[in-house]
Amino acid sequence: MPIPPTSPGSPKKGGIKFSMYWAYAIIVVFLITMLYLDDNSMTKDVSYTKFEELASSGGVKKITVFSNTNKAEAFLNDSLAKAVFHPQFEEGKNMNASIMTDIPSADKLQESIDRWREEGKFSGEVNYEKSADYTSLLWSFGPIVLLVVFWLFMMRRMSGRDGGGAGGVFNVGKSKAQIIDKGEGTNVTFKDVAGLTEAKTEIQEIVEFLRNPSRYTDLGGKIPKGALLVGPPGTGKTLLAKAVAGEANVPFFSMSGSDFVEMFVGVGASRVRDLFRQAKEKAPCIVFIDEIDAVGRARGKNPNMGANDERENTLNQLLTEMDGFGSNSGVIILAATNRADILDKALMRAGRFDRQITVDLPELKDRVEVFKVHLRNIKTDDSIDIDIMARQTAGFSGADIANVCNEAALIAARNNKKAVDRDSFNAAIDRIICGLEHSSKIISDDEKRAIAIHEAGHATVSWFLEYSNEMVKVSIVPRGMALGAAWYMPEERQITPVQALLDQMCMTLGGRAAEELILGTVSTGALNDLEKVTKLAYAIVVYYGMSDKLPNVSYYDSTGREYGFSKPYGDERAKIIDQEVSRIIAEQYERAKSILREQAAGHAKLAETLLTREVMYAEDLIKIFGPRKWKSRTQEILDLQAERDAKRLGNDKKESTDGPEIIDVESTDVVEPELPAPSTEDEKADEPTPPPYTGK
């Protein structure tokens, strides 16, 4: 485990720590000691008249006069003590009993004592003393002492975690980085990072350079100063950094971007300086900054309009330390973010982050490897097919797949199964995609029939479209916000033709079209479908340039800053865009109704079966409609990939003489902003009507 630093680059030394509990313990011990060392003394305050009466009775052994406080104490013999302190006084226990009183003056008391002596009522000795009166002193200096003690206590407390890092409020500018020293490492290695082949290759090269630098420096190469891991959440950026810490035999500093800036001005820049000072002392080493966008956001042009000076000062210091005038050799910076588009350009340039490593969502082959990693500690049976599960989870990140495996284990345990089976994984995927099943939701017969017709419409239309995804199952059991859902096996595509987008729209509109044809009316259940279709049609026209009236025009902003409050086109073009969006949607809606008219018998049979069974699978659709005409493109990709893997292993000897295969593709960088999720088509419950669609 990493040791939290208390001073720059060194762990906290052992020693006796101050604690207020020690003071409490000392007080308790003192009180207990006083209790057990008590000399059985008994003292009672009385009035001066009572004092004179008891002293003149002949039962007083000794009188002590405190002249500075005008008090007197008379010690009683056993007989008088028994009368005064009855029933507390116990004979035979040598109890020291006395009475105290306030006297008018020492002279006045002396006159009374002389009179008692003459009368033979008192024969004991008289002592004159000065008592130590700490009461006034305590009231004068007690509050000051308490304030000092309280201040020391709070300083001790603030010197820990609550004080802003090692050293507390006095060392608030010290770095809060977690240090993993050389030879310690973590329990995560590159074997635990499934998929991400290209990203691991580049990261492993940095680790190899630190292990064997002469291999690269002999050729004149220089190690990259920094590498930025960019990708969606949950894809394994931080996991890669943990693997680097586990593999590299050099010190590793780990820190979050939000740890730099706190409530004090100048803390961020001070912590950056302290972090790099520690790193230079331990060079060669690696510094990992997670979520660097917390301090690396692009600086504003106008510092008086919403800019954060403290964050910008921290960024400026970070830029200087990474590649400034001073030497920073031997310190490699790793950083991770899922918002690279908002980072400052000065931070992204070569010399600071020489490499930008994309950690993208896993492909089909990578998802298979991720499943294998997360299934290592899960007890499964023979019904598990990892390839099918990987195809069902298209678009899932590594964190999502880990959640699927854990959810499947919980579901299997809930059902008292001895191993996690295929049904448990299917239930886990359904749970994550669509939500928890609502068996207690009350639905009338008319509503249930409308839902069955709607979902049967989706299934029927998709079965007869070439580019639609392969149907897995369709259900009218309420889940989450959906009253019914259809599950599909998403196809693996790198580029998407326009017909595939139109088929996607047609399939999504199949539910609303079925309602209109069979029921003669429409409902609010298609709200989610219409939202997806409208966004997709808008993307076809405005982003992809696939419209007949606006061909080859794209208003997509890859920087992520969009266009502010203004649109990049005028009112006339906005009108054309709205017309094209409406035309595309209307055409696909009529197309869906046409397919439903042709397959009316099959659709009716499917809807009735759904009403009875509530859930139907692809095998049931084959019995109703027959096999699909089109082969799965994902399977074709898998066959092609297997063929290429065989060639790489040397099964095809022509590869050594023939040139590499060239696929003429203009661009595979396809941006799909907010497209419909490929995994389900669901029917939403009643929701408020959204405002009219007005374009961007």
Q: How would you describe the overall organization of this protein?
A:
The chain is built from 23 helices and 17 strands. It has 696 residues and is of the alpha/beta class.
Largest sheet: 6 strands, mixed
Percentage beta strand: 5-15%
How widely separated are the two ends? 51 Å
Summing up helix and strand content along with how strands pair, one would put the structural category as: alpha/beta
Mean pLDDT: 77
Fraction of helical residues: 40-55%
Shape descriptor reads elongated
Low-confidence stretches: 1-15, 161-168, 302-307, 652-696
Number of DSSP strand runs: 17
CA-based gyration radius: 42 Å
Cross-sheet strand order for the largest sheet = 8-10-11-12-9-13
Number of helices: 23
